[in-house]
Design a protein that fits this description.
Layout lengths: L1 H21 L1 H20 L6 H26 L7 H14 L16 H26 L3 H20 L9 H8 L1 E2 L2 E2 H19 L1 H11 L1 H6 L4 H27 L10 H11 L11 H20 L4 H34 L1
Antiparallel strand pairs: 1-2
């Protein structure tokens, strides 16, 4: 009887351990977020206020929109290093086709506001399709293909503005990027809707299931009849469109369109997806993880501004948190592989 009880307890303990191991990637980011909120709330009384929470959401909105597209790509076990460059290009393209003030020395081509927006979105789709073609048809690894696209995007920006700064964008972009409704910034609403739509697509549609299948086991997905090339190409286009949307709204949010304006958003967006717990190896994670990751970065950056700390140390702290997330990501993957081996044995 005692041996049976011990065996049952051991079985329960092993099942609990297996559950915790499988959910490590989801649990660790949430605990990190709670710990950061508690720490900064104690360190600075002005941190835990409704106004500051609104500031955090406002500050992370552009990153969140870019991170949505990256979530699709990383779930397929691919990477897109061109997101920041495409965002920058979209912002500059929409400004290039908008009437600028006389003191802005850019030989641009003015179009109606709706046409400028459509041209910018079309440019993003085109750049995403080029990425997709290079990766799925030519066979270039996504790391190298999107690295090249990063340079192409930077070249487009340089060619259009030639070192100058443009300020005017279509009224709709101004409203969505810097306006508000009922005290809630439109950019936060757009980011929330983008996250919601992406979550619904990944959770409740066949395309979403295929994304997880391709990332989880590409060969099995092919044997199941999934067109892996189409799925990978589609997520790269989605990533480009999300980046373009973020770029246009970001230009209105920052008040100008210029070269290298979104360079820091590449690391921020990747960090948000990875810190949130989406697996770099594909097939695990989702928009819920990305939301937690975006909030972690937002709370961290905002909280560090509320405490008396060396500004150069902030960069180091962010790097250490990203490293910790990568370690957890890899460790969780090893636990998952070990559990699979034990089950099959």
């Amino acid at each position: 009887m005692g041996a049976q009880t011990t065996q049952t307890a051991g079985g329960s303990g092993s099942r609990l351990g297996a559950l915790l191991s499988s959910q490590l990637r989801n649990i660790a980011p949430f605990i990190t977020l709670i710990a950061l909120v508690v720490f900064f709330a104690i360190a600075s009384p002005s941190f835990l206020t409704l106004d500051n929470f609104s500031n955090v959401l406002n500050q992370v909105s552009v990153t969140a929109i870019i991170a949505v597209g990256l979530t699709f790509v990383i779930l397929c076990a691919e990477i897109d290093l061109s997101v920041a460059a495409i965002a920058n290009a979209a912002g500059i393209v929409v400004a290039f086709f908008t009437v600028q003030e006389s003191y802005v020395n850019i030989p641009n081509v003015p179009l109606p506001g709706w046409a400028a927006i459509l041209v910018a979105l079309a440019a993003c789709v085109a750049l995403g399709l080029i990425n997709a073609f290079g990766v799925t048809r030519i066979g270039i690894p996504s790391f190298i293909m999107t690295l090249a696209m990063m340079q192409i995007g930077a070249g487009i920006c340089a060619m259009l503005v030639r070192g100058q700064i443009a300020y005017a964008v279509p009224p709709l972009v101004v409203t969505l990027g810097s306006g508000s409704i009922g005290g809630v910034p439109w950019i936060v609403i757009v980011a929330g809707l983008t996250l919601l739509i992406a979550h619904l697509v990944l959770t409740y549609t066949r395309f979403g299931r295929y994304v997880y299948m391709v990332g989880g086991n590409r060969e099995a997905a092919e044997f199941s009849g999934v067109n892996v090339r189409v799925i990978i190409g589609a997520v790269l286009v989605i990533s480009a469109v999300c980046s373009g949307l973020a770029g246009m709204l970001g230009v209105a949010y920052f008040g100008s369109a210029q070269q290298n304006e979104f360079d820091t958003f590449l690391l921020d967006a990747i960090a948000a997806v990875v810190v949130g717990g989406t697996s770099l190896f594909g097939g695990r994670g989702g928009i819920g993880n990305t939301i937690v990751g975006v909030l972690i970065l937002g709370v961290l950056n905002n909280g560090l501004d509320h405490v008396d700390i060396d500004s150069f140390l902030k960069i180091l702290i962010r790097g250490l948190i990203l490293l910790a997330a990568l370690v957890i990501n890899v460790y969780a993957q090893r636990l998952r592989t070990t559990a699979r081996g034990a089950t099959s044995a």
